[in-house]
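Field log, afternoon session.

UNIT: design team B
ACTIVITY: writing a sequence onto a fixed backbone
BACKBONE:
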């Protein structure tokens, strides 16, 4: 005979992970720009990627909490909210990184084009004198 488990009874094993994931996700969504700037000061160009790792950590912890809760027959609203916040923050952060990268790339190309134009003008000026 199979034993029936009373779903949802007892302590929720994923609750603490859900809370931790939610807190990390909320803090990074609200203050992620500040932490990323701080990480950039401390670690240079790796700063934004460290910020991304913290966002991903919040996502992973939230999902782990949800899975543990589900396996025990519980729901984990904070884990779900943490997961959603992490996904939104990850999308926003990736868009910002790509936009900054594109702008920086365009600026570098414009600088190189400007340098080429200045070199051509200098050669013309030398030829005329």
């Amino acid at each position: 005979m199979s034993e029936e488990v009373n779903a949802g009874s007892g302590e929720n094993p994923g609750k603490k992970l859900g809370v931790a994931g939610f807190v990390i996700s909320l803090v990074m969504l609200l203050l992620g720009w500040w932490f990323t700037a701080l990480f950039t000061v401390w670690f240079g160009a790796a700063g934004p990627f460290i910020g991304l790792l913290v966002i991903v950590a919040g996502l992973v912890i939230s999902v782990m909490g949800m899975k543990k809760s589900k396996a025990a027959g519980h729901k984990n609203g904070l884990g779900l909210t943490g997961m959603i916040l992490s996904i939104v923050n990850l999308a926003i952060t990736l868009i910002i990184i790509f936009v900054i990268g594109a702008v920086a790339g365009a600026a570098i190309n414009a600088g190189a084009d400007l340098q080429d134009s200045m070199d051509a003008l200098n050669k013309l000026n030398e030829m005329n004198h």
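LOG NOTE: The chain has a mean pLDDT of 86.
NEXT ACTIVITY: expression trials, pending approval
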